[in-house]
């Protein structure tokens, strides 16, 4: 009989998640309407006993619509029984959890907004998020233009969201005295910074796009149903073939609720 070794060879999972970058809210229904302020009231100076000017505020509405992720995996009963050194079911559930996280990261970044939550790049294409352009090689001037395209009130919590290949280019940029604008993390677990702002690596982004903004203000992720797991041997396939079925389901929503809190730099070939 073959022997099971008490370890599994697997890829290293990236620890960062977009969930930690955006605002996460709990949803009790499949659709949530979120009022958004497009223009606020204005005040004016006035004299004693003078007629006061009137003003208005304009509101719009953002919508979170729940979408479902799911997967089913069948494992032979023999595999479950023989792997006494490893809890196969627990391992499969862990792998599903990691797969759901990777997919969540992907759709927050590039989700199509129809069968998936709306991602940042989809909102950018719809001009919900505005952009500045970069022609030719990425330069420090391009990054300054991106920084100053973002209103000051969002800059305190702003971060760069960058593909790995663009991080390589950012790390090469120097000032006139040969000093790098890139700064390594000051402590373990902290991000590196560029021109004083944290840089988050996101390889779901197209290489031609860099985001800069306050993502907790700009993007909401709705939790309707966190990952649920069902394990059964009672399906027709499982019963006939002596298998154990593991099914996972997660329901989330995601959308840009305040486009002005984020900006993008788009490279033009």
Report the CATH topology name.
Answer: Major capsid protein gp5 fold
Identify low-pLDDT runs. 1-9
How many helical stretches? Answer: 7
By CATH, the superfamily comes out as Major capsid protein gp5
Quick one: how many beta strands? 13
Number of domains as seen in the coordinates: 1
Beta-strand proportion? 25-35%
Structure overview:
This protein is of the alpha+beta class and 269 residues long. It has a single domain (18-38, 59-268), classed as Major capsid protein gp5 fold, CATH 3.30.2400.10. It is 23% helix and 33% strand. It has seven helices and 13 strands. The protein has helices at residues 77-82, 88-110, 120-125, 140-149, 164-170, 215-218, 236-241; strands at 23-26, 31-39, 58-65, 67-76, 130-135, 159-162, 182-183, 193-194, 197-201, 209-213, 219-232, 243-256, 262-268. A seven-stranded mixed sheet has the order 5-13-10-6-9-8-7. The longest helix has 23 residues, at 88-110. The protein starts with 22 loop residues before the first strand and ends with a strand.
